[in-house]
Amino acid sequence: MNKIEDIFKHPIKKDNGFYIGTKSKDCKIDFCNEEKICKERNKVNNMKVFSLFLAAIILLLGASGCINKHEYKEVIENVKNYVGENAQSTAETVKNKLSLKYGCDFEVAKVGGRIDTSSTTFYLYPDFDSSMVFKTVIDSKTEEISDDFISRIIATKINSELKDNLNKYGISGEASAIFIKQDDRDEDDINITKEEYFEKYEVSSVFFYLVLNSQTLNDSSAENLISVCNSLGSKYNIQVAINGVTVSSKYSECAEQMKSEPDVSATWFDAFEPDCSYSFAVTDGKSNISVYELKKILAGE
User: Fold this and answer.
1) Side-chain half-sphere of 283: how many Cα atoms within 13 Å?
2) Is the pLDDT at 225 greater than 50, yes or no?
3) Is the pLDDT of residue 83 over 90?
4) Which residues pair with 123 in a beta bridge?
5) In what order do the strands lie in the sheet with 276-283?
6) Which three-class secondary structure state does DSSP give residue 8?
7) Residue pLDDT, tens place only, 253-296
8) b/e map of 181-214 (b: 16 or more CB within 10 Å)?
């Protein structure tokens, strides 16, 4: 098994706005550099699109000499209204399509950045769980949608399993899982079990972003954390990789926000003043970091 830094060095393919892990001979789970992922995710947002659109209009009117102070304000309001109405109409289309596919109702949490001029990203949640925010991309021309709702459901379940196992050792944490798997976006059974999902979509690895409450850690926490990941990997016959932090004073705030954050990344944790960061992977019962090494990291040494 390669060192944990090798896990992050391979590129992630982007398909309809979704990041899909790639497999290699040497490593079951391949992710690109964290900074690169974050830059791609935040590359274009609605405000930039709006600003460019507004600037183009104003420049054209200014060049023609037919815009004054009052007309300028009117232009701004008209553009704002157009953008708002268009987004609302598209959001309703997305909600209706998702409801037909899954048999439940959805609400829009926020409008994400446009991938390009032909598609828009929405973040939604089902009516039965407002914290289960997931991504949906709609093609502006065909109105076809791609979403990760099912993987979000399974991620919520596996997150809970990891947290429950840690709680048995008195460790408080919050997790956000990403799967290395086959494409599941045609799946419409919201009641599919973890076992069925893992088998059907050939899940080979689960990567967790994990925040731990520093105040619940002790001398045995490193050993317990590796043991929990090993047990999870053995149960589902998968590799388990962890990229995490420990947080003290802002742990509750971090954990609460993380529950409904669909785009967690290593840099996302920076706002919560982490005490330390750690990364490791458990494959076929073997960890690429020793208990002693992890213990020193968690202790801040």
Assistant:
1) 17
2) yes
3) no
4) 110, 135
5) 173-180, 205-213, 239-247, 276-283, 286-287
6) coil
7) 999 999 999 989 999 999 999 999 999 999 999 999 999 999 99
8) beebeebeeeebebeebbeebebbbbbbbbbbbb
- What does each C-alpha distance from 142 to 77, 110, 145, 287 come to in angstroms? 29, 22, 9, 47
pLDDT at 54: 54
Residue 281's DSSP bridge partners are 241
Mean pLDDT in residue range 107-120: 77
Instruction: Determine the straight-line distance between the first and last CA of the chain, rounded to whole angstroms.
Output: 25
Helix (H) or strand (E) holding 156: helix 149-167
Please list the residues that pair with 190 across neighbouring strands.
none
What is the amino acid identity at position 281? A
| Whole-number Å distance between alpha carbons of 267 and 264 | 8
Bridge-based pairing state of the strands 13-15 and 276-283: unpaired
DSSP annotation string for 223-287: HHHHHHHHHHHHHHT-EEEEEEEEESTTHHHHHHHHHT-TT--TGGGGGG--SEEEEEEEETTEE
